Amino acid sequence: MDEYAKIILKIDEKNVDEHLKIAQYFEGKSEWGKAARHYEKSENFQKALKLYISEGESRIPDMIEMVSKVKIDALTHELVDYLMGETDNIPKEPQWTFKLYRAIGNVKQAVKIAINISHQEQEAGNYKYAHDVLLDTYKDIKVHSLKIPFDLNHKLMIIHSYQLAKRHMKMNSHMVAARMLIRVSKNISQFPHTTVNTLTTAVAECTLAGLKKEAYQQACVLIRPENFEKIPPKFKKKVESTARKRVAQEDEPEPLSPCPHCQFMLPETQLECPNCKNNLPFCIASGKHMILSEWSQCPNCKLCCIFSEMKKVLESTPECPMCESQVAPMSLKIADDSQAEFKALVNLMKDPTDNKEEGGEDADSDEDLLRD
User: Fold this and answer.
1) Whether the Cβ atoms of residue 119 and residue 131 lie closer than 8 Å to each other
2) Is 291 helix (H, G, I), strand (E, B) or coil?
3) At what angle do helices 195-208 and 212-222 cross, to 10 degrees?
4) What's the pLDDT band for 246 if we cut at 50, 70, 90?
5) What share of the chain is helix, strand, coil (3-state, %, to 5)?
6) b vs e for 55-91, b when ≥16 Cβ sit within 10 Å of the residue's Cβ?
7) Can you list the positions of beta strands (E) in 286-364?
8) Which of 159, 217, 222, 281 is the most exposed place for a label (fewest CB within 10 A)?
């Protein structure tokens, strides 16, 4: 029967009567997964879902695929109950509920779950997975032309800054890495699994970039009792030495670039304009705020980037720093109408005040501290 069933699935999958007979045969043999597959093909979706659930968690992808195709509310609710543990008192991994809501097109609910998942994954130190979940959700929102919640955009920006720091350290681009780590350090509570390693790396990169006062400030945080014993032994003396040498002189000011809203000149990695008070979109290659004169985007994920910054990154490694797809430097283009693309993105960006609905050292050695 197994071979016959495979043949029917390949050459006559719309034969409802035949699939029903096969389903009943496998059900009689207590082969729930196979029976469910053929009940699905016979359009007995309720029975199919029941037997998929009987088969267990290995069949969750099949459940999600079926429910998202048939779009029957009762089935969706039943699957949600199963995933939440209402059926068997065993809550499933939240990633499955997230994937279900994405599959059925309930983007708003998927956003809420994605933010929760990313928070849990960051707590566990799974930064890449958290980044991927946020990115997938961000892209879904853009496809559906929905408003991008501030929380989602902010979380993606922070965790992407962490990823960018590692990328630029490998490129020996210490100033960009330092700026990204300074940003991360201001949100260090989001990185509890690697707090000390991240701050230690920030000290090293700020030193290499010539930002002595920033290095001193980060070192002062590290020598606090709750952090000091966790510093990797080979970095302790350097951190102690940096923290002892108080730096009175200010670091060289960060270069300025124009706000894309009002053209006010502000530090290039600052993402809120002090003049017009707008939140600014960030470049996925450098973490700097976007500028109209070099507006570009990744050909794959379509997220915005500064042309010269993205080209520099791609010439080092031809891979998008956001979506990790292969991108040839020559394929990058400056937008024909940067103003229009900027306005389109701004229309999707949600102001934080409107977010109530959602509830909302050596370069080669310090690099080892930043790990997923």
Assistant:
1) no
2) coil
3) 160
4) very high
5) 65, 5, 30
6) beeebbebbbebbbeeeeeebbebbbebbeeeeeeee
7) 295-297, 304-306
8) 217
The three-point CA angle 259-293-306 to 5° equals 85
Residue 4 C-alpha from the chain's centroid = 44
Alpha-carbon gap, residue 219 to 269, rounded angstroms: 22
- With a pLDDT cut of 90, the percent of the chain lying above it is 74
158, 190 Cβ separation under 8 angstroms: yes
Residue 240's pLDDT band (cuts 50, 70, 90):
very high
Tokens of 109: 């609910």
Three-state secondary-structure class, residue 312: helix
List, for residues 75-109, the tens digit of each pLDDT value.
999 999 999 999 888 989 888 999 999 899 888 88
Tokens standing for residue 366 = 């310090």
User: If DSSP codes are grouped into helix, strand and coil, which group holds residue 121?
Assistant: helix
Q: Do the beta carbons of residue 16 and residue 42 sit within 8 Å?
A: yes
Q: Which of 317, 310, 313 is nearest to 333 (CA)?
A: 310
- And the tokens for 336? 């024909």
What 8-state DSSP symbol labels residue 349? Answer: B
